[in-house]
Specification:
The protein contains two helices and 13 strands; from the N terminus they run E-E-E-E-E-E-H-E-E-E-E-E-E-H-E. The longest helix is centred in the middle third of the chain and has 22 residues, at about 60-80. The protein starts with 8 loop residues before the first strand and ends in a 14-residue tail after the last strand. The protein has helices at about 60-80, 140-150, and strands at about 10, 15-20, 25-30, 30-35, 40-45, 50-55, 85-90, 95-100, 100-105, 115, 120-125, 130-135, 160-165. The strands form four sheets. It has a four-stranded antiparallel sheet, covered by helices on one side. With about 180 residues, the chain is α+β, with helices and mostly antiparallel strands. This is Large ribosomal subunit protein uL6. Part of the 50S ribosomal subunit. This protein binds to the 23S rRNA, and is important in its secondary structure. It is located near the subunit interface in the base of the L7/L12 stalk, and near the tRNA binding site of the peptidyltransferase center. Belongs to the universal ribosomal protein uL6 family. Pfam families: Ribosomal_L6.
Length: about 180
């Protein structure tokens, strides 16, 4: 039994959910998101609640039940509140700068690394060591944050690199010197 799939999604007052075939569309004050759901999962909107049911109890359908409910819940949260990921740059000389629609990272390479703005996402640089990515799609926000972090992932000896805010990097001791 999928505990997540059986949970009911309660819609905020300004969010509207509709379904056309297997495509679910969620409209809210921040925008509109659409996603195709699996045909084995059925969705029903009853007032301000969204309920998901599955047609069989095989393992794949059980997994799809919880995943589909979680994806639609993220869509509802995204169009009503939005998602934000914050990245921190740790290292001597590491810095980020935003000019126009381009994010430029200086993270110890012989050249700066550039990222172009993506549609539906907002990238802000409040200071030289912080990058804030926000948008209505949790997947797109997480993907861009992971791409930026992959430029210089935190290393375990000095802890230098790009890390998520609140991420804990386990440090290693290094050589003893003898």
């Amino acid at each position: 039994m999928s505990r997540i799939g059986n949970k009911v999604i309660t819609l905020p007052a300004d969010v509207e959910v509709s379904q056309e075939g297997t495509v679910v569309t969620v409209k809210g004050p921040k925008g509109t998101l659409s996603r195709e759901i699996a045909s084995q999962i059925s969705m029903s909107v009853e007032g301000t609640e969204v309920i998901f049911t599955r047609e069989s109890d095989d393992n794949k359908t059980k997994a799809l039940h919880g995943t589909t409910r979680a994806n639609v819940a993220n869509m509802v949260e995204g169009v009503s509140a939005g998602f934000t990921k914050t990245l921190k740059l740790v290292g001597v000389g590491y810095r980020a700068a935003k000019s126009g629609s381009k994010l430029t990272l200086s993270v110890g390479y012989s050249h700066p690394v550039d990222f172009e703005d993506r549609e539906d996402l907002t990238v802000e640089v409040p200071d030289a060591l912080t990058i804030k990515i926000s948008g209505i799609s949790k997947q797109k926000v997480g993907d861009l944050a992971a791409e930026i972090r992959a430029v210089r992932a935190p290393e375990p000896y000095k802890g230098k690199g790009i890390r998520y805010e609140g991420e804990i990097v386990r440090r290693k001791e290094g050589k003893t010197g003898k």
